[in-house]
Amino acid sequence: MKILVPIKRVVDYNVKVRVKSDNTDVDLSNLKMSINPFCEIAVEEAVRLKEAGVASEVIAVSIGEKACQEQIRTALALGADRGIQIETDAKPQPLAIAKMLAKVVEEEQPQIVLMGKQTIDGDNNQTGQMLAALTNMPQGTFASEVKVDGDKVQVTREIDGGLVTVELNLPAVITTDLRLNEPRYASLPNIMKAKRKPIDVKTPADLGVEVADSLEVLKVEEPAGRSAGVMVESVDELIEKLRNTAKVI
């Protein structure tokens, strides 16, 4: 079984980002970049399925400028077998990304596409669902548990007050939530081995996909600052402030 894992290069989640002075975007100068955390969970799950004998090959694919090969190499160090980069200097929107991934799916014919439910920069939570629609594959989203049994996969997701499990026919698209697993750290020997693993470079034109911006970012702003908290002496004082100051009860 072949598993395709789309990954995205994003600002490391430990880094505090700054907005550009002209409010056009986030300033990415000299910031540490990493694999999107949800994508890293998808890589870990795919590697675990390979280690369990369920999968035979894990392919990491990323879309972006040449620098995203760094994140592909990280995925290879974590256990992926080979990488695909779709090189573009543009910032494609979710639909264009889904179309390019659909072409890769058509070429590679994976049984599972395992990907993060969203990225921490765009927070769109759209690409997996769009990819499932474009490839006519069933989708299991926000997975907190994945069990493959023959030509079917059970995907469990958390809902308000409990869990729900769906069973999908393979091939399928699965998007990962935080509780699915805890990604491993890449060891130094595996980092060295990853340098010798192949990365196939394509362009959107190779896939016949036009990367045109359909969305325009009008403005980016820092979140509003929070006011300082207030210490109260008793439960009665807390209730009084909630009722008369905050007016929430």
Topology at a glance:
Elements lengths: L1 E6 L1 E3 L6 E2 L6 E2 L5 E3 L1 H15 L5 E8 L4 H10 L3 E6 L6 H15 L3 E5 L10 H9 L3 E11 L2 E8 L2 E8 L2 E5 L11 H7 L4 E4 L32 H10 L5
Parallel strand pairs: 1-6, 1-8, 6-7, 7-13, 8-12, 9-12
Antiparallel strand pairs: 2-5, 3-4, 9-10, 10-11
Helix pairs in contact: 2-5, 3-4
Give keywords.
alpha/beta; two-stranded antiparallel ribbon; 6 helices; 13 strands
Q: What share of the residues does DSSP label as strand, in percent?
A: 25-35%
Low-confidence stretches: none
CA-based gyration radius: 21 Å
How many H/I helices?
6
Mean pLDDT, to the nearest integer, reads 91
Give the N-terminus to C-terminus distance in angstroms: 55 Å
By DSSP, the count of extended strands is: 13
Helical amount among residues, as a percent range? 25-40%
Identify the strand order in the major beta sheet.
11-10-9-12-8-1-6-7-13
Shape: globular
